[in-house]
């Protein structure tokens, strides 16, 4: 019988332009090239045999990535082919690496490990003082505080719009409508119509800002209505569907809220910038993973040359706050695809 190590040994190479990493099924390092080890500030023997996710990734990111690998290898391994993540260096700094991964199988087709080529992204190496783990934990706490403050502000603005501004406009509408019936004035009729439109738009805006629809109507209905409101009067058609609805109840309130906001932000982006005719919002939920995919047939854009928007940073922060990953694939003329994967076991 051929031992798994023999299949892993076939991947032993010494490229000088990338980090080559071979892991076994326990995610221990079976091989790393000298160039890759030096890139991280180590000797090869200091890395061999250690668990890659436990020792060489920021703690929380390592835990979540390990969880994703464990779930996706037996079910959807193609989703692991390309991704980026931070890798800890020996001096306490970290670098951002873009990975190209493939699974290694034996003659019987059983998974025995993985082989990855990593390319250091330019201008991403940063020195973190205090140590990287503390800084990353601090950043996570700061992100949580920012999102919490943002949601409170949204709720406050929604309440002001609904309870105060909305009531004032409704009172004005009733007064003008009564006056118009008495005078039969065309100008008052137009003003009444404009006021009605303004009240409707204000109500929609209030609903978009508030998280209350999630609590009242549930995630599926609230999301469907939100998409309908965002695309009202537009040529854009958005299909929304959920697979694994039986698992919706296991999504915590935080997960539902963050997914709701990510969908809201991306559909808004598509409506305002993509020039798309069709878009699809698909959420697949299993016992261990929530996967959101949003695609459109719009004009796309050059992700490398475009500055990162506040909206994109917000979506990325929400995904990372849940221990998940956010990826965007796009190119000029090729539409856009956004993917979010959130492990549920660790939440």
Strand sequence of the main sheet, in spatial order?
A: 2-1-5-4-3
Integer average pLDDT: 79
SSE string, helices as H and strands as E: HEEHHHHEEEHHHHEHEEHEE
What fraction strand?
Answer: 15-25%
Tell me, briefly, the overall form: elongated
- The radius of gyration over CA amounts to 25 Å
> Which structural category fits the helices and strands?
alpha+beta
Question: Helical proportion?
Answer: 40-55%
Let me know the number of strands.
Answer: 10
Largest sheet: 5 strands, antiparallel
C-alpha end-to-end distance: 41 Å
> Uncertain segments of ≥5 residues (pLDDT<50)?
124-133
Number of helices: 11
What this model shows, in words?
About 5% of the residues have low confidence. This protein has about 350 residues and is α+β, with helices and mostly antiparallel strands. Helices cover about 45% and strands about 20% of the residues. The radius of gyration is 25 Å and the shape is elongated. The relative contact order is 0.09. Helix 9 packs parallel to helix 10.
Please tag this protein with its features.
5-stranded mixed beta sheet, 347 residues, 5-stranded antiparallel beta sheet, alpha+beta, 11 helices
């Amino acid at each position: 019988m051929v031992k798994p190590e023999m299949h892993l040994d076939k991947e032993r190479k010494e490229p000088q332009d990338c980090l080559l990493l071979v892991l076994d099924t326990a995610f221990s390092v079976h091989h790393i090239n000298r160039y890759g080890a030096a890139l991280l500030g180590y000797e090869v023997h200091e890395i061999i045999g250690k668990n890659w996710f436990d020792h060489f990734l920021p703690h929380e990111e390592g835990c979540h990535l390990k969880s994703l690998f464990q779930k996706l290898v037996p079910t959807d391994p193609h989703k692991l082919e390309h991704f980026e993540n931070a890798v800890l260096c020996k001096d306490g700094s970290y670098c951002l690496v873009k990975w190209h991964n493939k699974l290694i199988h034996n003659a019987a087709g059983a998974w025995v490990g993985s082989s990855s080529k990593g390319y250091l992204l330019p201008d991403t190496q940063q020195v973190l003082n205090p140590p990287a783990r503390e800084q990353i934990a601090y950043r996570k706490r700061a992100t949580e505080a920012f999102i919490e403050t943002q949601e409170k502000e949204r709720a406050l603005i929604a309440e002001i719009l609904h309870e105060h501004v909305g009531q004032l406009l409704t009172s004005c509408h009733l007064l003008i409508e009564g006056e118009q019936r008495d005078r039969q004035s065309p100008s008052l009729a137009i003003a009444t119509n404009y006021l009605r439109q303004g009240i409707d738009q204000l109500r929609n805006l209030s609903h978009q800002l508030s998280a209350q629809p999630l609590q009242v109507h549930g995630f599926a209905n609230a999301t469907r209505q939100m998409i309908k409101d965002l695309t009202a009067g537009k040529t854009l058609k958005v299909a929304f569907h959920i697979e694994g609805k039986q698992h919706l109840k296991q999504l915590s309130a935080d997960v539902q809220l963050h997914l709701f906001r990510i969908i809201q932000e991306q559909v808004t982006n598509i409506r305002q910038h993509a020039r798309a005719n069709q878009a699809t919002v698909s959420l697949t939920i299993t016992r261990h993973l929530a996967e959101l995919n949003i695609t459109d047939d719009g004009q796309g854009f050059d992700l490398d040359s475009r500055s990162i928007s506040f909206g994109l940073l917000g979506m990325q922060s929400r995904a990372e706050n849940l221990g998940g990953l956010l990826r965007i694939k796009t190119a000029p003329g090729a539409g856009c695809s956004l993917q979010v994967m959130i492990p549920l076991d660790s939440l």
